[in-house]
Amino acid sequence: MDQEKTSKWALASAGFGIIAIITLLLAGYGYQWDWWGLGTSFTWLLPGSTIVGLIAFSLAIVFGFARRNSPNKKGAGFVALGLILSLAVMGTVGYWYMEAQKYPPIHDITTDIENPPEFRAIVPLRADAPNDTTYGDQEKAQTQREHYPNIETLYLDVGYSVAFDRALAAAQEMPWEEIVTVDKEAGMIEAFDRLPWFGFIDDVVIRVDTAETAERSKIDVRSVSRIGRGDIGVNAHRIQEYLEAVENQ
Fold first, then answer.
1. Is the C or the N end of the chain the one with fewer CB within 10 Å?
2. 71-108, pLDDT tens digit by residue?
3. Do 152 and 234 lie in a common domain?
4. Number of CB atoms found within 10 A of residue 32's CB
């Protein structure tokens, strides 16, 4: 008796699943590699990967119904691949979409809203960035207060020199792309971080200063995205992670 051929529905499901995951990955890496602009990634590739993933998922369902009438129909492995890839794509896009709804549309976060640390060495590196280093208006400052009330100046019961050394050691522990400048005399540390996938770059400036007495110091941090209106909470999380590292020194 002739062996049953692998179902075309199963092969199609796997094929569309592979296309979906490749499209999803290229939405980010293609932008990072300057193959196309951000508009192409967000307008076409991300939605496209979701649609193709949905097609792969639907074809897997069709195979399931077809197999009820032909139990010996081959292709379960291909269908499993299609399902896994399609769910991964739709889950990833859906997750980040939902995350974006949780956070305010701001990209400049600082521990000192009234007198935020200023970038110096980083400024030339942001020459072509859509977002400048000018701190936002009071409306944006109030938005930060409402959404990130725990982002505050860190006070340490140590002298300035010790505080700066701790600040620098913590910065060196961070998985940031590069520390651009260290100026102990001015109390400034500047760095930038490159995010995976899309390769978005965020800049960080750390300011160390004395507090009320010579034996007490304070550390302020500012983290700003070079592109994008919102940041999905990345800058606030980076500041919190850094300050925790300082406290643990």
1. N
2. 677 888 999 999 999 999 999 999 999 999 999 999 99
3. yes
4. 16
State whether 89 and 73 are in the same domain: yes
9-61, pLDDT tens digit by residue?
A: 999 999 999 999 999 999 999 999 999 999 999 999 999 999 999 999 999 99
Rounded Cα–Cα distance for residues 47 and 110 (Å) = 33
Which run of H or E residues covers position 144? helix 138-147
Distance CA 73, CA 6 (A): 7
Q: Could you tell me if 33 and 129 lie in one domain?
A: no
Strand partners for 183 = 188
CA–CA dist 210, 50 (Å, integer):
52
Enclosing domain of residue 146: 108-247
Contacts of 149 (CB under 8 A, 6+ apart): none
CB-based contact 78:110 (threshold 8 Å): no
